[in-house]
Amino acid sequence: xxxxxxxxxxxxxxxxxxxxxxxxxxxxxxxxxxxxxxxxxxxxxxxxxxxxxxxxxxxxxxxxxxxxxxxxxxxxxxxxxxxxxxxxxxxxxxxxxxxxxxxxxxxxxxxxxxxxxxxxxxxxxxxxxxxxxxxxxxxxxxxxxxxxxxxxxxxxxxxxxxxxxxxxxxxxxxxxxxxxxxxxxxxxxxxxxxxxxxxxxxxxxxxxxxxxxxxxxxxxxxxxxxxxxxxxxxxxxxxxxxxxxxxxxxxxxxxxxxxxxxxxxxxxxxxxxxxxxxxxxxxxxxxxxxxxxxxxxxxxxxxxxxxxxxxxxxxxxxxxxxxxxxxxxxxxxxxxxxxxxxxxxxxxxxxxxxxxxxxxxxxxxxxxxxxxxxxxxxxxxxxxxxxxxxxxxxxxxxxxxxxxxxxxxxxxxxxxxxxxxxxxxxxxxxxxxxxxxxxxxxxxxxxxxxxxxxxxxxxxxxxxxxxxxxxxxxxxxxxxxxxxxxxxxxxxxxxxxxxxxxxxxxxxxxxxxxxxxxxxxxxxxxxxxxxxxxxxxxxxxxxxxxxxxxxxxxxxxxxxxxxxxxxxxxxxxxxxxxxxxxxxxxxxxxxxxxxxxxxxxxxxxxxxxx
Length: 610
Ligand SMILES: Nc1nc2c(ncn2[C@@H]2O[C@H](COP(=O)(O)OP(=O)(O)OP(=O)(O)O)[C@@H](O)[C@H]2O)c(=O)[nH]1
Ligand SMILES: [Mg+2]
What we know:
Distance between the termini: 70 Å
Mean pLDDT: 87
Bound molecules: guanosine-5'-triphosphate, magnesium ion
Helix content: 55-70%
Radius of gyration: 28 Å
Number of helices: 25
CATH architecture of the domain at 5-201: 3-Layer(aba) Sandwich
Largest sheet: 6 strands, mixed
Low-confidence stretches: none
């Protein structure tokens, strides 16, 4: 690091706009969302100040105080106190405070000041504060705190000018460090009150529009109805908006495959390109639009400020099944992927609640399962309208997501019965202001998700698809063999071997085989089925599936994917976050038993009814 480079840490209460400020300064694309606990790791970026000086900027998880209790808050405390492994304390602390919520945020500013290090206070969200008629006497606040104070608007271009001017100049002198004892902590409240009285004019404690909306969204009956409608509409939209695009992409690859087949000489290369790449990979790529539609809704909800309300509304229910309202947001993130969901539990203070959330998070339907669901639903469930408006395929998709949630509640409830400590924790959660999502932020979020999907597709999924194709094509059948060539391949042997285990739940050998690569990446089940049937001489995948797989088996496979043990990366994250192989073993085995039992019941009942 050059002698000239200054290290600056952004700290503050959760949800005050630290990451928005970080992105504005460094051009970063870290996740910004309207709830507490979005940032859970230390992130670093570079900013070249107008003077040419290079500044290293650290974005840190939000903290309510230094009595750090949750794993993410501990990171912030360690970095500031210089206890973070391999890192000296920052040269300058930029303490960010939400100007619309100074009653809460100033307390943390005072705590930071007592560290005895150079501090600048950034009063962020000044746009929202002005809209609400809040005025702050900045020079007076600065004088009383003994710190430089600047106003910022982290979501507006140029909104950090004052801060940049401040950090590009001389580092302000540090205040004297002060001891942290109970008496001085009680004193903080009195100091905050005095500061507010002298420097802030707040016409009303809360926003009128927020209050009006909250009367509906937090209402015990209407609130739940609104939540149910919102969730339901999301899944209908995934189907009605995403499906036509998926079909178009699928058709495009089908066309491409047939043209390439005519071009390429017959042989292994032709097989790889048409069956493996166009058939397998193309089918998975087709599900990108559906995944993006799902994320469009999740990102919009995250920015709107609605999620903590939903958490609040569901707290009683979640406590009764052994979880907490705090589990809501990590569980919702698991609809994207269980990995960020499990990492998001770092903001849960109680270790027991955190572990319970980690163990059930993989039961939420991650977006990697969406292609599997969409493929099977498309092949087996007719596209009827129900009651004139709802799409039956969308309803089945919704039911599968609901089955995952119901499974999580059941598992949570059982875990609650099994543990000794039955105590419950009250939910203390901040309700942020409602906010209109910014198109740019949502677009960045969608782009990031799209790239993650494409990287998986061209990485692990591509590798597995080629492997599946090779296993299904080699060795070639002996001369004079009868029956499809694939029966003589390695895949054929493996699949038939595995099929014994899955016969009671109705899987044929192709389905059993597809489960193997799905353990590395769920979407590969689609590519594997596509490849295996294509190598086996079938045409389009949808009709091939519906002619070879009975409905009962298809339903059983859907249910299997709702509960089955997760991909390897999820298990690896459980190991990392809980530092225990025991937890990995528990989650793998309980999900295996749950999936097997649920698929068995589904298959037996559906076969009996058919
Ligand atoms: N109106 C307005 N909104 C802002 C401003 N700064 C941030 N926001 C919004 O405030 C919310 C929280 O922003 P983040 O940057 O994620 O907050 P954070 O402090 O990093 O939060 P944690 O990582 O959870 O501690 C998001 O919805 C932002 O769009 C601002 O200056 N004005
Ligand atoms: Mg953040």
